[in-house]
Amino acid sequence: MLEYDATSENNDFIFDSIVTKLYNDTTAQSVVVLVRGLPGSGKSHFARELLQRCEAMECCIAEADSYFMQGSEYHFDSRFLPDAHKQSFEKFKRCLLNGSRAAIVSNTFTQSWEMYDYINHCYQNNYSLIVVNTSLSHSDEYLQHKNLHNVPLQKISDMRQRFQPIKSGFWSSSDILSFIINENTILITDRFIGRGIELSTVLEASKFVTVLLRKYPIEKLIKSINNLHKRNSKNRRHSEFHLTIVPPNDR
């Protein structure tokens, strides 16, 4: 587990372990470091410190916040938040494409889906992945005082409420694959089918589908797959998904 506390004097272990990984990991072309945490928790400070310690190697930082910087002043506008995250991701990809040894991404990443594009990029390109959480031990009032972008107290509280526990530390290739599968899995139950949602639409939208049906209406599943096949054949498209069916007596 890698948890960074900006107020602690014992952070050298985290920095040293990451720098050692960068120097010694010969199994991957590049290393991705995702730094996540609430506003004011020290994400940017951690990223800059890590970049400084990696000065002997070519590394870069990508942050959504940089989109809102005008000179030395920060001007946040929520309307442009999607553009800010798009810019962050494009810079991240560009750094790695240009041969950077490490790309350090410092964003709040309160939910797993916000990390998906970065982790999927690691999966597709065989990059090593390190996730660092900044400490959640400080109060919302403390974080409001420390954050440099005037994030309101209520906003910080809301972000804490939705902050999803995600494994920190050095991810193995199986960790990355499990994350990709979990984020792409649609769980279909009797209640789901009862809501009148067309199953073939779900199959087309997801790569991993798990079906847990008490009544096990296999004929409905086959019909949906056939509908998807006909629709894609007509549109000259190909959909690939992994389907897992779990009978009632196997649960």
List the SSEs and their pairings:
Blueprint: E1 3-4, H1 12-24, E2 31-36, H2 43-53, E3 59-62, E4 69-70, E5 73-74, H3 81-97, E6 102-106, H4 112-125, E7 128-134, H5 140-146, H6 153-162, E8 169-171, H7 173-184, E9 185-189, H8 190-194, H9 199-205, E10 208-212, H10 218-234, E11 242-245
Parallel strand pairs: 1-7, 2-6, 2-7, 3-6, 9-10, 10-11
Antiparallel strand pairs: 4-5, 7-8
Helix pairs in contact: 4-7, 5-6, 9-10
Description:
- With 251 residues, the protein is of the alpha/beta class.
- It is 45% helix and 18% strand.
- It is built from ten helices and eleven strands.
- Strands 1, 2, 3, 6, 7 and 8 form a six-stranded mixed beta sheet that branches. A three-stranded parallel beta sheet has the order 9-10-11. A two-stranded antiparallel sheet has the order 4-5.
- Helix 4 crosses helix 7 and helix 9 crosses helix 10.
- It is globular.
- It starts with a strand and ends in a 6-residue tail after the last strand.
- About 3% of the residues have low confidence.
